[in-house]
Amino acid sequence: MAKRPIYITTPIYYVNDRPHIGHSYTTIAADTLARYHRLADREAFFLTGTDEHGAKIAEAASAAGKDPQAFCDGIVLHFKDAWKALGIEENDFIRTTDTRHLESVTKILTKLKGAKTESGEDVVYASKYEGLYCVGCEKYLTEKDLVDGLCPDHKRKPDLVSESNWFFRLSAFLPEIKRLIESEELLILPLERRKEVLGLIAQNLPDFSLSREKVSWGIPVPFDPKQSAYVWVDALSNYISAIGYGAEDVESQRLFKKWWNDAETVHLMAKDILKFHCLFWPAMLLAIGEKLPEKLFLHGFFTVDGEKMSKTLGNQIDPNELVAHYGADASRYLLLTQYPFGVDGDIQVARFTEKYNSDLANELGNLLSRVVKMIERQFDGKLPGPVRDLAGVQELMELTEDAADKAYGEIKHFRIQGAIEVAQSLIKGANKFFDHAAPWKSIKEGRLEEAGGVLYVCCEILRVVSVLLYPVMPTKMRELRAVLGEGDDTLSLDSAREFFCLKPGSALTLSEPLFPRIQEPFVPSGMKKLEAEKATASDDGLLDISDFGKVKLQVAEVLKAEKVEGADKLLKLQIDLGKEKRQIIAGVAEFYSAEDLVGKQIVVVANLKPAKIRGIDSQGMLLAAKKGKKLTLISPSGEIPVGASVG
Ligand SMILES: [Zn+2]
Fold it and tell me: What is the pTM (predicted TM-score) of this model?
């Protein structure tokens, strides 16, 4: 009997940004899971895509001088290219601007409009939406968007505006969703996330709006074309629009039945979109009378080398750069082996090269090289025959015997790292066996058959490893299999359950190392750029020590000092340099009051390119000594005329 197929999705990614490793992480995980299920002889459908509507996109498009569709078409290519570079093989890529999606969402909205709750109320009703609206931006802002209560772009207070929107009666569905979660018909994983969802239900969440009047870049609401579909219904529906929901043709209906109604359905995502996926989405499906997804797996957040990912830190890694440095497969491996899938963790990019060299170049790549080289030298490049009663072989066979089941067991529980560890333990076992059996000694002492037996067993372990790590590193593992003379016909967990499979006498060749050693650490270009900028100016008005050599230092006297409005750390100083007077902005207000400084002699960098700090001209920098939370200005220890050079 055919095994039940599985449908795996990532969230669709918003195209206001280029893909970074946050997007890549979920997508690589989904690709790996799908490949693993296929190894277990299950059909798997893996969907990813892009979310392309909304005010932010329209705004970014107009800033780029493009119409929104052309703008989206451009950004989508970055996602598609990045996935290709990472060896991602999705079965379908849905865009919310696809016609099929528009048709599907139109159907869903129409259905929702006619739907009634159990107590006979309309599921969709008109009500007032109230929000903070910036006329400058022509969009709603949230409290979080504001800086000191103002729109950061237009420096104006947003208006409290209300518009009439269509609302979804979420409250009517919460009791049923609670029941389904508790009975595990709707399985939310890991368990902490399930608790979080049940906690949200207990708070009696308000209904959510399905439409917006002032956002024109979206799907028109069929029963009220002045309004467009708001993000929840537009984005979440991709999971069914991609597989034919609402389409009349036979093929779409077959697809939908197969992948939604009959398959095991799994949505993967990061935990920040929990509420929408675990409550809004199931509620909408209940309202239109469709089956709910079976499993929602919410993975954690990660930091990069202990820091939150951000543009300011330059640690938002472009997957293409990572691939250029380590290759697609190793990049996937490095990301998936940092911490268990599911929890919060840290991606130690600074240690990527070390990890690559130890796990891939040394443990795995070197084992293959040593074994194949010895076979080339001593056995004419032909795989020697097995010797079953060698010391240590029994143990290795036992280790290998249930490896495939163990690894797949981990995968069924979304423990990708656990599955990788099963393969790692085989590699370690084989290395230990090889070193202990020391086939080079047997060769020297003329026991060629014994040496051959050792090499054969190592090749067998490598064959099993090539199956177990294939979902993580598909290209490299196919290369490894090619060295052993294995093709895709035996690429399955079933074949990994067998031992003594390789045919003695088959030719083995390895032209270059599977994982060549890498010397250079990986530094994201964003970080390199920041470091270069830091060398010329630091934002607190203090000079970086590396630039001292090029610098012209002079003694100056502070004539006037005052605080800078809205900047707690800055003082605006008027200084006398002898031949001229200047204004500088200095980040010393936490340590000196304006009065402290007037009349004081200080040392300044006189040949600095003028800069604007908080919009105010600054022609130079003062020198200060800083340690921890202490700062003191550098000034001459005795009287000297202003303008005197320092050096
Ligand atoms: Zn604004």
Answer: 0.81
